[in-house]
Amino acid sequence: MSDLSxxxxxxxxxxxxxxxxxxxxxxxxxDRIRWDHFSAIAALHVLCVFAPMTFSWSALAVTVFLYWFxxxxxxxxxxxxxxxxxxxxxxxxxxxxxxxLGTMNYQGGPIRWVGIHRIxxxxxxxxxxxxxxxxxxxxxxxxxxxxxxxxxxxxxxAAKDLKKDRVxxxxxxxxxxxxxxxxxxxxxxxxxxWVIWGVAVRTVFTYHTTWLVNSASHTWGYKNFxxxxxxxxxxxxxxxxxxxxxxxxxxxxxxxxxxxxxWYELDPTWWTLVLLEKIGLVRRLYAADAPHGPRM
Length: 296
Known about the structure:
Layout: H1 35-47, H2 57-84, E1 89-90, H3 92-103, H4 110-122, H5 137-146, H6 160-163, H7 166-173, H8 176-215, H9 235-240, H10 247-252, H11 268-278, E2 282-283
Antiparallel strand pairs: 1-2
Helix pairs in contact: 1-8, 2-3, 2-4, 2-8, 2-11, 3-7, 5-8
């Protein structure tokens, strides 16, 4: 299977010398809005209004399962810990499965998502950070993704390694297709109840858990490590985001596929990776050591 391996030992192709744009003041205005993003996010929130009247226990069960399968595997494990930081290795088949699951969260394609996140790490809580609470909590939570990049950057330049992959390039362009296919399958199996809950409710909940990592986990919580940014460990964000809320740990050890480093820092994505390693689906998990000093 060596010919199918994805090498996770390479450093992400981004450096402080990359030309990603000049500084410009952030503001929210009609001339800044990305209407494709705004309309999609708004429509999904509006559809959630119909959640109470379409509720069924089967729809709730489907939603909980899809939240783990699509958010937990697609965003936390796939987009974040594998594609962005290369915290483990896997086969191409599983690599592309995780990338496809990531698109079903409707947060954009893998190349753009990874590019934004790598820039966030390189420039965390500086003027060049795409979503720092230093520019306003609401900006960090949602406004940044409704607007064109205020610095005028081509964020995909921070994911040049992924742009070389034809499958990822296709997923990046047509990222909305898997979500619509999923919606059709859910409609055939469970009607509008499953669509509203399995697509709209699940996606909106995923939006806000992801955004809370950007906003709340750079505002409240504790630090295990002294970093140059405002990243914090926030337990309640970690609980709803499959371990992503241990954000200070992550910023201190970006490549680590394990985010919960103390015994009480629950990290379901890491547990899943350990299980997948035992059955041979992933390998070479990189895990940072637990902190030795007191919390800050």
